[in-house]
């Protein structure tokens, strides 16, 4: 029996504050750094930079990565849950998530504490865009990055975590 793949969004205060959106694919967390975080507005396209894969164990990591190490700075789990692949080919057949990423377009549904509904990552040259799909969970008036700043695991803000150095 296979369980649903997980997702996590970690708020990371490294060189610049950003949101790491990570989706479990083939036993690893495929990762995109989204500088301004996810938007619930389907008209907003957010820059997403594809980054290195992370081990699944990293999905629950919160803490402060020491100075001098890759990604040094505070990290909180801003959101977490499971996700469903919605990517289809021209004949409406499911496309494997790894293949979809390789081809440059992954459509998915998040079932999280904060983020719900359909989203898409689309490659545009070297970078990617993260866009909210128009659905019942879309809400152009709500900015969750402002309204919901705390970790879904610890209840800490990124500022709280940074003081734990």
From TrEMBL:
It holds the Pfam family LigD_N. InterPro entries: LigD_PE_domain. Residues 10-123 form the DNA ligase D 3'-phosphoesterase domain. This is 3'-phosphoesterase.
């Amino acid at each position: 029996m296979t369980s649903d793949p997980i997702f996590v969004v970690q708020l990371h205060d490294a060189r610049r504050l950003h949101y790491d959106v990570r989706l479990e694919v083939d036993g690893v967390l495929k990762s995109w750094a989204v500088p301004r975080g996810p938007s619930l507005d389907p008209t907003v396209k957010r820059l997403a930079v594809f980054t290195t894969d992370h081990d699944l164990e990293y999905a629950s990591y919160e803490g402060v990565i020491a100075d001098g190490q890759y990604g040094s700075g505070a990290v909180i789990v801003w959101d977490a849950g499971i996700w469903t692949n919605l990517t289809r080919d021209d004949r409406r057949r499911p496309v494997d998530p790894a293949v979809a990423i390789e081809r440059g377009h992954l459509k998915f549904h998040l079932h999280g504490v904060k983020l719900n509904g359909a989203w898409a990552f689309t490659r545009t040259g070297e970078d990617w865009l993260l866009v909210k799909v128009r659905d019942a969970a879309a809400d152009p008036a709500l900015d969750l990055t402002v309204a919901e700043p705390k970790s879904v695991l610890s209840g800490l803000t990124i500022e709280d975590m940074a003081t734990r150095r």
